[in-house]
């Protein structure tokens, strides 16, 4: 059997949480819809996949799902100039940029539902006959080669693959010098440790590890059981990775974008 190409592998994006750590700016729209530059963060995340040929996305929504749905339902109008013929009730779009060749499904998976429950509900409806699928969150950015991660996943016989990253320290690091001065590095990477980067690929049997119940949490029993059974492999990545979980995280990625130095671009 031929291995699937990236275009054949659906990517499920978990974007139904409330983003409570971001305060008021996430109250009226889901965290993945907060802007980085002129585009919502969700579009940046999808582009992390799109550059490697992935084109099928299932957005597992919850909190303020209508904001995500409206954005993609009106994507052409929001990202193009257009002319409206009022008498004929027609619209002609004039593209300012090439629109991505993506198939995007907006799947409402309930409010107050944990990540595993969202994934189970969306996959039951939209995985189709695909033998492999990707999963990520609506707040992670990376310059990892996700096409290479898929190839790694397909090359071994385990059920799951996770992107392994050097986690950033929550604290700045001081190096003390003999003269009493110090050098400061803001949130250095903790080499020698490995954490989940939140970019996964799974074989279809992973569905048996999930439950569509509200309380099923992907990061708890499903992944813990997969690990206990020796069914989870790690694809190491030592480049850029960030999780936009707090206002400080958001300020950091905005600064990178505005400087023109965003590694995930």
Give a short summary of the structure.
This protein has 265 residues and is of the alpha/beta class. It contains 7 helices and 15 strands. It starts with 10 loop residues before the first strand and ends in a 6-residue tail after the last helix.
Quaternary organisation of the protein chains = single chain
Number of helices: 7
Q: Roughly what fraction of the amino acids lie in strands? A: 25-35%
* Category from helices, strands and their pairing: alpha/beta
Number-wise, the strands total 15
How far apart are the first and last residues' alpha carbons, in Å? 34 Å
| Name of the CATH class | Alpha Beta
Rg result: 20 Å
Contiguous uncertain segments of 5+ residues? none
The CATH architecture comes to Alpha-Beta Complex
Helix-strand sequence: EEEHEHHEEEHEEHEEEEHEEH
Instruction: Report the CATH topology name.
Output: Spore Coat Polysaccharide Biosynthesis Protein SpsA, Chain A
Shape descriptor reads globular
Q: Name the average pLDDT.
A: 91
- CATH homology superfamily: Spore Coat Polysaccharide Biosynthesis Protein SpsA, Chain A
Organism: Benzoatithermus flavus
Domain Nucleotidyl transferase: 13-244
Pfam families: NTP_transferase
Protein name: Sugar phosphate nucleotidyltransferase
């Amino acid at each position: 059997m031929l291995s699937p190409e990236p275009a054949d592998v659906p990517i499920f994006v978990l974007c139904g949480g409330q983003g409570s750590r971001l305060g008021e700016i996430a109250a009226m729209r889901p965290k993945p819809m907060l802007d980085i530059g002129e585009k919502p963060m969700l579009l940046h995340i999808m582009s992390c996949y799109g550059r490697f040929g992935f084109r099928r996305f299932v957005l597992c929504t919850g909190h303020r799902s209508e904001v995500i749905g409206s954005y993609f339902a009106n994507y052409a109008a929001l990202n193009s100039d257009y002319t409206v013929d009022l008498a004929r009730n027609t619209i002609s779009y004039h593209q300012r940029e090439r629109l991505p060749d993506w198939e995007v499904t907006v799947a409402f998976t309930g409010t107050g539902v944990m990540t595993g429950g969202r994934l189970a509900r969306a996959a039951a409806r939209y995985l189709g006959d695909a033998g492999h699928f990707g999963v990520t969150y609506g707040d992670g950015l990376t310059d990892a080669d996700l096409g290479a991660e898929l190839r790694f996943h397909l090359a071994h016989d385990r059920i799951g693959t996770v992107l392994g990253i050097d986690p950033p320290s929550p604290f700045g690091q001081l190096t003390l010098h003999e003269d009493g001065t110090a050098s400061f590095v803001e949130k250095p990477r903790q080499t020698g440790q490995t954490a989940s980067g939140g970019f996964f690929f799974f074989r279809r049997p992973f569905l048996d590890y999930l439950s569509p119940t509200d309380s099923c949490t992907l990061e708890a029993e499903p992944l813990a059981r997969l690990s206990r059974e020796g069914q989870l492999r790690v694809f190491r990545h030592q480049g850029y990775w960030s999780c936009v979980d707090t206002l400080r995280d958001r300020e950091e990625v905005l600064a990178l974008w505005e400087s023109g130095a965003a590694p995930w671009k």
